[in-house]
Amino acid sequence: MNKVTLKYELDLDFTLVAITSSLRDYRLCHFINKATRRNFTKIDDHEVWLPPLGWAYFSRYADFSTATDTEYYLLANKGTDGGILVPEMRHSDYFLLIKNFIDDEDLAFLQDGIASIAEVVVATEISPQKLKSKENLIF
Which domain of life does this protein belong to (predicted)? Predict the structure, then answer.
């Protein structure tokens, strides 16, 4: 009897920017909105099953650009119950997840705007393919 193996690869069609900041999520959102002319608003928390903790909830903000069909999400890396969304990026406090197309100029504008916020230590693009827990970023 022949054995059939199913290979499953995640479609990681998004850009990811890691942000390190001591600000609370709502304050960071306010400053990002001012610095980058975005309009992030609070939406339902991102729910992830983390085996030792059970369900963990991570703060999530969204902004949608109707002109370019681009979706922007700001996700907290630290959950309400102490869980960490992406454990291998433990030093990052937030992730800016950008779905659909964004060109290099727009990405540079966003990164520069976020990095210009005094309380932001660093805002850098990372490759989601290199993350072990990349499935936690899919919703």
Answer: Bacteria
